[in-house]
Amino acid sequence: MDITAATRLLLTGEIVAIPTETVYGLAADATSATAVAKIYAAKNRPAFNPLIAHVATLEAAQELVVLTSDALKLATSFWPGPLTIVAHKTPDCSVSDLACAGLNTLAVRIPAHPVALDILRAVNRPLAAPSANLSGKLSPTTAVHVHDIFSNTVPVVDGGSCTIGLESTIVSCTGDEPMRILRAGGIGYEDIRNIVPDITHSLCTPTSIQSPGQLTSHYAPDAPLRLNASAPDPQTEVWLGFGPDNNTTYIGENLSRTGSLEEAAARLFVMLHKLDGDKTIAVAPIPETGLGCAINDRLRRAAAPRS
Ligand code: TXA
Ligand code: MG
Prior knowledge:
Order of helices and strands: HEEHEHHEHEHEHEEHHEEEHEH
Distance between the termini: 36 Å
Number of helices: 11
Bound molecules: threonylcarbamoyladenylate, magnesium ion
Number of strands: 12
Strand content: 5-15%
């Protein structure tokens, strides 16, 4: 579907899957509760889980939320890009209560994908867009993934493969409490701390790694995962390697033979989609630095016990 047709559908309250630099989003007019309800229904998403409002400009973001001076620093450093800011809604915020799940805060982001920006400018209103997966399942990073997930029932604007391949980093900047990172994502913790040194995070610390049982299953393929594996069991497992892989007899894939975390992030969901089948996916260790933090977060959730 092209941008003009997508714009027309969005303005009549329909849902359309659109590309962003992180993952494909399932977009709808954020100001219309009826339109937003269609997102929750299509994704089978618990209605209490709020959505991100996507806008094209900083001015549009500030019509929706109050940005503290630190939030403004992050916005001007990383927007357009894979950063989502959670902040207090303005008194005349146009986003529907359903999209905010009744909270007095709202998550906002300016995506960096040219197609997403064209659509946002054309509709000239905020678009609510969660990742275009079914709740709890793998996120899509290609138009084909989205077609597969929704069995061709949702229109998709094909913008190619997502360059970042992981969801945005979410930062809470309400001003009520110290700023903190709520979700590791496309911008590394170190890069955020360079702009706002006081920010806290508990995402990469050993305590959050020790008890995978406490993690809710999310971003999960159907196949089980075994993390930090040194090699696959050839009978029962397929291999997802990282870094130089000298054993060419393994059946599977490699996230990045050169050990690039950027490349690994961009390929993570594509490889998990591809390897998903009857066998367990054995995954090589990924360093806990830069984007490795977000990659490991997604892998741990994908490996967590399923409900
Ligand atoms: O990269 C991304 O962020 C993608 C693309 C499409 O933009 N979107 C995305 O949306 O990942 P979603 O809905 O899958 O994840 C948004 C997360 C959810 O975990 C939600 O709970 C959280 O953001 N969130 C949204 N509003 C919030 C709020 N007011 N306070 C705290 N968390 C919030
Ligand atoms: Mg999601």
